[in-house]
Design a protein that fits this description.
This protein has one domain. With 93 residues, it is an all-alpha fold. It is 78% helix and 0% strand. The N and C termini lie far apart (28 Å). It is globular and about 40 Å long. The protein is built from five helices and no strands.
Length: 93
């Protein structure tokens, strides 16, 4: 259950960053000031990795029991789950 909540939280935050207009001005400002983040903030899969890492640091989910491995796994799981959700959305729309 903890992992499902983690994935849903990652999806919600990633969707807000990449697709929604809530923080559009701030995101565009970041892209302008830090051009190396432009691709990360435009790609749901890429953004989800870092959102997953950030969420893990705020609310850790025990995956393997090793902190550094869990950080990497959190990013990979988040990225993979968001990629699956995005592919389902593309096929349904």
């Amino acid at each position: 259950m903890e992992l499902i909540v983690f994935i849903l939280a990652t999806y919600g935050l990633t969707n807000i960053i990449v697709n929604e207009s809530v923080f559009r001005k701030q995101i565009e400002w970041i892209k302008k000031k830090l051009p190396f983040l432009k691709n990360v903030l435009s790609c749901p899969t890429c953004c989800a990795f870092w959102v997953g890492v950030g969420l893990f640091l705020v609310a850790p989910v025990t995956l393997s029991g090793l902190f550094l491995v869990d950080i990497l796994l959190a990013g990979l799981i988040a990225s993979g789950a968001i990629n699956i959700i995005e592919q389902i959305k593309i096929r349904l729309i």
